[in-house]
């Protein structure tokens, strides 16, 4: 068995526009190891989220994967029949979307939204899915009895935790987190990411962590990839990318971060 859980090779993604094709992702190759937290950084529009949606094949027109492969444990997700892929989404690959706190259905109680995911993949009863929802609420620091509430009864940070809890309910091997704490204040952001880190260390799942915040990424991730205009211009461990960046764009990103006195830290440990 390979040490890599996810392998992306020579991925090209185009947007089919009236004026012609626009290549948003250009020949990107990367891998994510088992139990690894891999960060993908870059400015808005560089192709980070486009890659995330391609992994789960949730990209919609006018986006189109024009070349390359995305393999999970050796299986090419791009060639997999939709029926087989549906069995992998949530169960083996979970995703926390941008503005995740707005991803919950406002008309459904939270326990019903857990049940939708759990019943589809495991066939469990409502009683069993409620028990699992309560268990996940405990893990993310929310009182279990609140699974009966509606999304509007929770704060933004709590809704974010709920989405993460739903994502983790089936114990997937890979979690894709696309700007998971956008629009949250820094204190709540830190609390949520510390919880994610604790859960990752407990269960050993891999994470693709997408953000603009290089400083945050350096504290959370084992390796970092930097994208520029659809290309992956640099990949390395945190020490290499932060202290000895190869690409000029990476150096500019680090130089744009205000430098404050801080103690040294290791990946996966918040300073």
Give the key terms:
Rossmann fold, 6-stranded mixed β-sheet, globular, alpha/beta, 2 domains, 9 helices
Report the average pLDDT across residues.
Answer: 90
Structural class: alpha/beta
CATH class of the largest domain: Alpha Beta
Strand order of the largest sheet: 6-7-8-3-9-10
Q: Low-confidence spans: pLDDT under 50, at least 5 residues? A: none
**In CATH terms, what is the architecture of the largest domain?**
3-Layer(aba) Sandwich
**How many distinct folded domains?**
2
Order of helices and strands: EEEHEEHEHHHEHEHEEHH
Determine Rg (CA atoms, Å).
19 Å
> Roughly what fraction of the amino acids lie in strands?
25-35%
The span between the termini is: 35 Å
Task: Say which CATH homologous superfamily of the largest domain is assigned.
Answer: P-loop containing nucleotide triphosphate hydrolases
Helical amount: 25-40%
Query: What is the tally of beta strands?
Result: 10
**Biggest sheet statistics:** 6 strands, mixed
Protein name: ABC transporter ATP-binding protein
Domain ABC transporter: 8-254
Main location: membrane
Family: Belongs to the ABC transporter superfamily.
Descriptive notes:
It is found in: Cell inner membrane. Belongs to the ABC transporter superfamily. One of its GO terms (cellular component) is plasma membrane. The chain has 271 residues and is an alpha/beta fold. The protein folds into two domains: 1-89 and 213-271, P-loop containing nucleotide triphosphate hydrolases (Rossmann fold, 3-Layer(aba) Sandwich), CATH 3.40.50.300; 99-205, P-loop containing nucleotide triphosphate hydrolases (Rossmann fold). Helix content is 35%, strand content 27%. It has helices at 48-55, 82-88, 110-122, 126-139, 156-168, 186-203, 214-220, 238-243, 248-255, and strands spanning 4-17, 20-33, 37-41, 63-72, 75-76, 93-96, 174-178, 206-211, 223-228, 231-237. The strands form two sheets. It has a six-stranded mixed beta sheet, sandwiched between helices. The chain has a four-stranded antiparallel beta sheet with strand order 2-1-4-5, with helices on one face. The longest helix is centred in the C-terminal third of the chain and has 18 residues, at 186-203. It is globular, with a radius of gyration of 19 Å. It starts with a strand and ends in a 16-residue tail after the last helix. The model has no long low-confidence stretch (mean pLDDT 90).
């Amino acid at each position: 068995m390979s040490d890599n859980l996810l392998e992306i090779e020579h991925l090209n993604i185009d947007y089919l526009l009236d004026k012609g094709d626009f290549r948003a992702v250009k020949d990107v190759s990367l891998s994510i190891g088992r139990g690894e937290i891999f960060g993908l950084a870059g400015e808005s529009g560089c192709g980070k989220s486009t890659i995330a949606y391609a992994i789960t094949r949730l990209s919609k027109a006018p986006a189109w994967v024009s070349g390359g492969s995305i393999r999970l444990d050796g299986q090419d997700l791009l060639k997999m029949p939709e029926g087989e892929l549906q069995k992998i989404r949530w169960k083996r690959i979970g995703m926390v979307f941008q503005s995740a706190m707005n991803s919950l259905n406002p008309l459904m109680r939270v326990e019903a939204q857990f049940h939708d995911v759990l019943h589809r993949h495991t066939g469990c009863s409502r009683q069993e899915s409620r028990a699992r929802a309560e268990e996940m609420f405990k893990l993310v620091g929310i009182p279990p009895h609140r699974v009966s509430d509606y999304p509007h009864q929770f704060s933004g940070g709590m809704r974010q935790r709920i989405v993460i809890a739903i994502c983790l309910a089936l114990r997937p091997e890979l979690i894709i987190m696309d700007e998971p704490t956008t629009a949250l204040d820094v204190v709540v952001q830190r609390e949520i990411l510390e919880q994610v880190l604790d859960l990752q260390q407990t269960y050993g799942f891999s994470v693709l962590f997408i953000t603009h915040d290089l400083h945050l990424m350096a504290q959370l991730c084992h390796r970092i990839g930097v994208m520029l205009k659809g290309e992956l211009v640099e990949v390395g461990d945190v020490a290499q990318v932060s202290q000895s960046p190869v690409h000029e764009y990476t150096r500019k990103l680090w130089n744009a971060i205000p430098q404050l006195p801080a103690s040294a830290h290791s990946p996966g440990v918040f300073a």
